Amino acid sequence: MTQSTATTPSTTATAPATGTATPARLAEDTSQGRTTIAASVVQKIAGIAAREISGVHSMGGGVSRAFGAIRERIPGGGTGAANIAGVQVEVGEKQAAIDLDIVVEYGVAIVDLARAVRRNVITAVERMTGLEVIEVNIAVNDIHLPDGDEGEEAPAAQTSRVE
């Protein structure tokens, strides 16, 4: 038993140094085996949990949504960790940090929405992975307006009130 105790710390000490080489992180290491969770799994869980909250229109900024739409049309382009628009994660051996870019529906109280999204993401990721979520940063990039306002160019046709 002393040998496995000495082996475990050296395994956990070397894993962060090779973070780019190993896409999956240690979530549980027991005498019966090891469980690892890929960063893409945490990314998907966080994205789904954020979208579950009423008032979140979509994920990602304008550019990431546009690239995401293009990737969806390319065969094989819609898979992988980098393809979840608006969700970035850092996953360590026991902790995770999550950054979300969201577009909210017009009229929603943004502070309350961010609080609900943060709570739901933390709960889902911690429950499903066992990782401790140390932070969820939320950037509101846009507000989705009700339909019908997209095709108009009324401000260009009106005279300016200021000179």
Features:
163 residues, alpha+beta, Alpha-Beta Plaits, two-stranded antiparallel sheet, 5 helices, 6 strands, 28% strand, Asp23, Asp23/Gls24 family envelope stress response protein
In short:
This protein is of the alpha+beta class and about 160 residues long. The chain is about 40% helix and about 30% strand. The chain has a single domain (about 30-145), classed as Alpha-Beta Plaits (2-Layer Sandwich).
Taking pLDDT < 50 over at least 5 consecutive residues as the criterion, the unreliable ranges are 1-23, 149-155
- Distance linking N and C termini: 81 Å
CATH class descriptor name: Alpha Beta
* CATH topology assignment: Alpha-Beta Plaits
Helix content: 25-40%
* Total number of strands: 6
Strand percent estimate: 25-35%
The CATH architecture classification is 2-Layer Sandwich
Oligomeric state of the chains in view: single chain
Mean pLDDT level: 76
Which class do the helix and strand fractions yield? alpha+beta
Largest sheet, strands/sense/barrel: 4 strands, mixed
Written as H for each helix and E for each strand, in order along the chain, the element string is HEEHEHEEHEH
Into how many domains do the coordinates divide? 1
Helical region count?
Answer: 5
| Rg (CA only) | 21 Å
Shape, per Cα inertia axes: elongated
CATH 4th-level superfamily:
Cation efflux protein, cytoplasmic domain
